[in-house]
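Troubleshooting entry. Yesterday's outputs looked truncated, so today I'm pasting the complete records for two proteins to confirm everything comes through intact. If either block looks cut off, that's the bug. Protein one:
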Amino acid sequence: MNKSQLIEALAKAEDLALKKAEEVVNTVFGDMEKALVRGERVEIRGFGSFKIKNYDGYQGRNPKTGEIINVAPKKLPFFKVGKELKERVDIA
């Protein structure tokens, strides 16, 4: 499911205009993004949680040339699946 499919599903389930459903989805994702940028954790019970992980810099190697390069430290979003979702998906 992509974002536009989510918007359509919300509009259908809640009998909303597509424009209103799009506003709702964009607001939710926007607020989640803002919280992550501030370094806050976002938890959706039964689904999972998002947080920012800090990765240290390291020396890597360009696989094409073999040249050693320095990879800068970075922050990336990390998703941890919730127990309920994990159990629902792992039915087989």
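Protein two, checking that the full record survives here as well:
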Amino acid sequence: MYLLKDIPLQLGIDNLGLMFLILTCLMWLMNLIFSIEYMRKEKHKKRFYIFYTLTLFTMIGVCLSGNLITMYLFYEGMAVASLPLVLHEQTAEAVRAGKKYIFYSIGGAFIGLAGFFFIYIYGDTLSFVPGGVLNMARLAGHETSMRVVSLLVIIGFGSKAGLFPLHSWLPTAHPVAPCPASAFLSGNITKMGVFVIIRYIYYLVGVDFIKGTWVQYAFIGLTLLTIVMGSMMAYKEQVFKKRLAYSTVSQVSYALFGIALMNPIGLCGGLMHVIFHSFVKNTLFMTAGSIIHKTGLKKVGDYVDIARKMPATMWCYTLVSMTLVGIPPTSAFLSKWYLATGSLESDLPVVSWLGPLMLIISALLTAGYLLSITIKAFFPGDEYDYPVLEKREPNLYMLVPIMILTAGSVLMGIWAAPLIRFINIIVWSVQ
């Protein structure tokens, strides 16, 4: 099938697409089960499930795209299909958030569209080829323009991943959406921005064209700035879902940092963090949804002693929080170890030591904004006036997905060898 006579619409699957496809479908299913109970109190349930399913179909299309134009069309369709999830409550706040979400999504993709025209002119094909498709003879004399466009593509598609400066839609859109949608937005839709950037750098322009240039340094600088900035904003935020949204701004840029290092260890760490963060962040938003659904409490200052009411929920929250901080032997410790090692071995001036330093600072801030909730929940203090205990644990529709993802978040760090082998196949195919 052809969009134009020399621009085909093409589907295909490789190991990278397969990884993102399995992750997307699994998290969609977990949130679907969680939503059975959560959505009982919500209006417009039929509309929610229609667009929730359409969003999945467009994301599957992104994962299965065989060339740049096909991926771009599905990517834009994903923004349109997911918009009603943000607008679901139809409040003034939701409408404002929806406008911001679609503006950043479409605007970022429009900036990224410049890459399509340059690849069309200077590439041998629009299809994804490990190592890149640029025709260097045809590109001769236009390298600077191609690099400027490459940075624009990274920033444009990075908007979906929450990369500075196009990050502010996340803390606006995520808190107003129903929690199953917030979890999927934060844990998976953001990863589509990561996926497109990987496709562009490693399968279209090629690593050799960007590595060691000012584009790589600019990309790394943006990721490190986003990592620390997102963590600082999360630390200050008191609304639970908004705190988790700022956390996503920070954590997704961990994966982008690994991609920007452009060495095998860094890329392996980035791909692992895509998976681990998806497990953790879906779980965290589900715990937020459980608390809001059962108690109506939205601010972290109100969660004192909540562990007595919801012990299983808060134990799961604590375990995945420890995972996101990077405490061994949980999964995110492994991805952060690879990222720090990749940075140290990058031989890039300043970056080789600044990268690990920023990761440590962010980890400390992450512990501050996540584990402080655990401390208040389990240890309210000697002066706290304990009320009569009232159990508020959610039912199994909500609790089982939380427990499954919590177990996965922890156990993938202990039995990681099969996953690392699979990711290494992807990594070495593009070196």
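Both blocks look complete. Sanity check on protein two: Residues 264-295 form the longest helix (32 residues).
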